[in-house]
Each structure stands twice: as structure tokens, then as C-alpha cells.
Write a structure and sequence with these properties.
Helix content: 40-55%
Radius of gyration: 28 Å
Strand order of the largest sheet: 2-1-7-8
Structural class: alpha/beta
CATH architecture of the largest domain: 3-Layer(aba) Sandwich
Number of helices: 15
Length: 370
């Protein structure tokens, strides 16, 4: 693999938080990045009056089961409780409950405040937490659910149908980005085939992009693009699950980490490129769409040398005559073998003199390694 495995690829980034880090990771690998935040830069927009009222109400009754869905949500809630002078009461109140945590970030946040989880699914999916609870007798059991940025009213209703008394604590709501113009631009770029992949680090970002596409009248086109050629790359299974309702396939790494998602794209995009990759005179030559990459570096070719390269690539390693190369040159090019020689010279200057071999009295060929 080259030092720039994503050279020649365009990746849309929908993140608001840690966007600079993600963009840098992608650009260091050669990708062109289109940044279009789907959500507010500050996802922790807390209605303190509502949250405090829910906290005080929770403290009036015992809690049997406490469901923690996000690390950032728990930290935001407990930090607010500390401001109100209620943190010790909240921690002590929840310490006696069976605590189920959705994933490692939730576990880490719990332990930071001296609480320990009873169980956490390996999948990091909230659906598996619910499945775990369905195997228990929930009649009369009081459950507190810490919501993340999206409502969990559906999950709460499902638990109530099993006999539980459910209270949801809304810590924050995730708002759409204040400036949606970049998102509209990204939707259009995806639909027009100008983007190879789009990354998502939060499930609400998927909903926000779909809403933007619907507003612009492009939702069906966006879905079709993701179903066909564009890679929907998610940081983990929770984010990927947001695509299921749209019938969109997505990919995510084994570990829900930003660097792991970018690493996944290093193999996913080249494998889907449908381009031509050849070892030529000790170099890796990759054609992706109209882009030509040599050892991961983008090569700019004018029309004539580009036409020569395309002709040589029809049957790599096979000799192509000057007459055939002349016929392949763009219209308007001087109709003589000298024009072929000039185009070949420019191609050699761009990709290396050893990459294109002269076969005396016959023509030219790519010096493919075989």
C-alpha cells in the first residue's frame, strides 16, 4: 500500500465535534475532504430546568435498573448535578441500581464517578441492552433511561409494555448545524458522483443529512448513490443502525474509534474503486475515474498524454503502434507521428521515463511488472 492510500478519493465529513482531527487524518492519507457539519458544534445543549426537574423527580423514588446510553450524556448530566449540589445524592441513589451500560465510553464515564456497570454488550448496541432486559421479569421494576441526543421514547414504550415503570432523563438534544449550506452542497456532490465516501460519527448526523436531502428534493437520489457507489462509513454499529431504515449499506470498524474508521476507508475505497492498478517499472500506477496516481501521488496529465496512457492500458504490456496512438489522440491534435512522440515524452515526464518503453519499429508499451 502507498503512503497516500486515499489519494484520488474525495471523502465527505459530517462531523462537527473533532472534525479537524478527522479531516487531518484523511488528508494525511491523500484524500480530498469536503467538510459539511450535519450537527451543531455544541451537541450538549441542555435545558437545565428540565434536566434538574427530572433529576429531582428521580431522587424521590428508588431505581431498580439504570440504563446508560452515552458517556458524554452521563458526564453532562452529572456535571450539571454537581453545579446544583446534587451530585453526591445522584451517585448514591444510582449506586444501588443494576446498571447496564451501552458501550465502553458509558462504562468509562460511570467509573469516573465511582459507579460500576452490572453488564454491557460487546456489540455496543442499545438494541442488545433491550434484548437483555426482555429476558427478565420487569413487572413493577423502575427503570431510568439516560437519553442521548435522540428520543428513546420508543424504547421506553417497549419496556412499559413488559410491565416496567420507565423514566427517561433527557440530558441534551442534538441540533442541526447553524449553517446548512455546506450540507446541501455535500448532498449535491454525492448525488452527482463527485464524492467516494461520507463519514458519520453520530446517528443524528445520518438523520440530518437525510432531512437536508429531502428538503432539497434529493433524498431518493442520495439513497440510490449510497446503495450504488458511495461508501457510508460509520464510526460504529450504533451510527450504522441509523442507515438501516433507509436500506443503505454501511461499513464500520471492529472498534468504534475515529482512527479505525479512517483506517477502514484505506482498504474499502481502493477495493471499490473499479479502477486499474498496475505495477509499472517498480511503481504502482492507479487509475480511479479520471485521476491518475503514481505511488499514491496525484499526477496531472493534459489530454494528449492522458489519451496515450489510456491506449496503453487497454492491454497493459502489449505494444501499441504509433498509428493507433495517433488515432487515440484528442481531436485537434496535429495529425502526425511527431504528435505521438510529443505526447509520449510528456507522459514519461509525468510518470517516469522507465514506465513507457519504446519498441523499435513497432511502437510503445507500458513496462508492466509480471
Amino acid at each position: 500500500m502507498t503512503d497516500l492510500p486515499l489519494a484520488g478519493f474525495t471523502v465527505g465529513v459530517t462531523a462537527a465535534r473533532r472534525a479537524e482531527e478527522q479531516v487531518a487524518l484523511l488528508e494525511r492519507r491523500g484524500a480530498k475532504v469536503v467538510h459539511a457539519p450535519a450537527l451543531s458544534v455544541d451537541p450538549n445543549r441542555i435545558d437545565e430546568d428540565v434536566l434538574r426537574a427530572a433529576t429531582e423527580a428521580m431522587l424521590t423514588q428508588p431505581v431498580d435498573i439504570f440504563l446508560v446510553t452515552t458517556g458524554i450524556g452521563l458526564k453532562s448530566w452529572f456535571t450539571a448535578a454537581e453545579r446544583w449540589g446534587l451530585l453526591d445524592d445522584v451517585v448514591a441513589h444510582l449506586a444501588g441500581a443494576d446498571i447496564l451500560a451501552r458501550g465502553p465510553k458509558s462504562v468509562g464515564a460511570l467509573r469516573r464517578f465511582g459507579l460500576r456497570e452490572l453488564w454491557s454488550p460487546e456489540s455496543e448496541e442499545f438494541e442488545d441492552v433491550l434484548a437483555h432486559l426482555r429476558g427478565r421479569d420487569l413487572a413493577g421494576v423502575r427503570i431510568v433511561v439516560q437519553e442521548h441526543g435522540q428520543s428513546l421514547s420508543m424504547a421506553a414504550h417497549a419496556l412499559r409494555r413488559l410491565g416496567a415503570e420507565v423514566t427517561t432523563v433527557t440530558v441534551y438534544r442534538v441540533d442541526a448545524a447553524e449553517d446548512l449550506e455546506p450540507m446541501f452542497g455535500l448532498v449535491e456532490a454525492v448525488v452527482e458522483g463527485e464524492v467516494d465516501a461520507v463519514t458519520f460519527t453520530a446517528a443524528p448526523a445520518v438523520a440530518a443529512m437525510m432531512e437536508a436531502a429531502a428538503t432539497a428534493g434529493h433524498r431518493d437520489d442520495l439513497i440510490s448513490a449510497f446503495q450504488a457507489d458511495v461508501v457510508a462509513a460509520c464510526v460504529g454499529p450504533v451510527t450504522a443502525a441509523a442507515f438501516e431504515m433507509w436500506g443503505v449499506p454501511s461499513v464500520y470498524p471492529d472498534r468504534s474509534r475515529l482512527a479505525a474508521m479512517v483506517k477502514l476507508l484505506e482498504t474499502e475505497l481502493p477495493s471499490r474503486a473499479g479502477g486499474t492498478s498496475l505495477e509499472v517499472a517498480g511503481h504502482t500506477l492507479l487509475l480511479h475515474g479520471e485521476d491518475v496516481l503514481l505511488d499514491g501521488a496525484l499526477v496531472r496529465l493534459s489530454p494528449a498524454p492522458g489519451a496515450v496512457l489510456q491506449a496503453l492500458l487497454v492491454n497493459p504490456g502489449t505494444v501499441v503502434s504509433r498509428r493507433d496512438l495517433l488515432a487515440a489522440l484528442p481531436s485537434g491534435t496535429a495529425g502526425s507521428e511527431h504528435a505521438v512522440e510529443m505526447a509520449v515524452a510528456r507522459l514519461r515526464a509525468a510518470i517516469g521515463t522507465r514506465c513507457v518503453q519504446t519498441v523499435v519499429k513497432r511502437g510503445y508499451r507500458l513496462a508492466t511488472d509480471s
